[in-house]
Specification:
Length: about 300
């Protein structure tokens, strides 16, 4: 899933925390009371089912089947919202943000073996219209494709786990997937925004009262390649890692949208995305300049 700048969270009073690993990253859920065994089991099951459907790193995943077998695939229920957001951002970025970048990521070295060695040539990213068709239940795959939903998947799983907590009667919680988080407690949550050029520093501190805060950065998942450095934010038009921004932070009502928008903001200006979504954001360019929307809930240091 998407690489996220790490953040330092603080809460006024200690609270019970449930820690676990899922979809290749570390998770923390803070609640007012300890979670019971049934809720913990349901959290683990939901994360496993999501990973089994969407991971391109597993032999048994649905995504892995699509990479070798064209055909019609009935997708899990969460695909409706996932593809709604992806399609909107595909259009808003004129095709730069796409779930079809998986093969290019593999060619750049971000493959199932984490080889981090670029291939001699990078295969072009197929156009949505040529490769897949989605009708709300079934995905028709015209030719084998490697789906990569990392730009939005971790955020969506944050939302889904929040739904599990709500179904079990848990109120007032924070679901944190290694920096992509959803906060529902009445107690504000303070989050330091890690400086992507110096991890020992923060560029500001956000205060989340309710809703999601997600981020993406090119420093957290990058590796050397001939002639420079590659990272995981691929421009689907060029097939090349984008260089326009180095870090983004987004607040929105859902973590799915916040996570996806954090990647889309590497490609287009915020005002273009506001035609589809309501959000606030901060972006940092490679020269260290910071752009913050007026409504972003943070005290910025730079």
């Amino acid at each position: 899933m998407a690489s996220t700048p790490r953040s330092s969270r603080s809460r006024p009073t200690p609270s019970p925390s449930h820690h676990f690993d899922a979809i290749g990253t570390r998770w923390q859920i803070d609640t007012a009371a300890e979670l019971d065994a049934a809720c913990i089991a349901a959290i683990a099951d939901r994360a496993e089912r999501y990973d089994r459907a969407w991971s391109r790193f597993r032999d048994d995943s649905l995504v892995q089947r699509m990479s070798s077998e064209p055909g019609a695939y009935r997708l899990p229920a969460e695909a409706v919202e996932l593809f709604r957001v992806y399609r909107a951002l595909y259009e808003a970025t004129d095709g730069a943000m796409s779930p079809l970048v998986g093969r290019a990521l593999e060619d750049w070295g971000y493959d199932r073996a984490y080889s981090l060695r670029a291939a001699a040539s990078i295969r072009p990213v197929p156009r949505w219209e040529d490769a897949i068709a989605w009708d709300g239940e079934t995905l028709d795959v015209a030719t084998p494709v490697v789906l990569d939903v990392g730009a939005a998947g971790k955020g969506q799983l944050v939302d889904l786990l929040a739904g599990v907590l709500a179904d079990h009667g848990v109120g007032g919680f924070t679901v944190d997937g290694s920096g992509d988080l959803l906060h529902t407690s009445s107690t504000p949550l303070r989050v330091a925004l890690e400086h992507p050029l110096d991890r020992s520093k923060a560029i500001g501190v956000a205060t989340v009262t309710s809703g999601a805060l997600c981020a993406s950065a090119t420093n957290r998942r990058s590796w050397p390649v001939p002639g420079g450095t590659a990272h995981h934010v691929i421009d689907a038009i060029t097939g090349i890692p984008t260089r326009r921004m180095i870090a983004t932070w987004v607040t929105a009502s859902t973590a799915l949208e916040a996570d996806a928008l954090a990647t889309a903001l590497f490609f287009v200006e915020p005002q273009r995305l506001r035609e589809w979504f309501e959000f606030e954001c901060v972006r940092m360019s490679p020269d260290g300049r910071v752009q913050s929307s007026l409504g972003f809930p943070a005290r910025m240091f730079t």
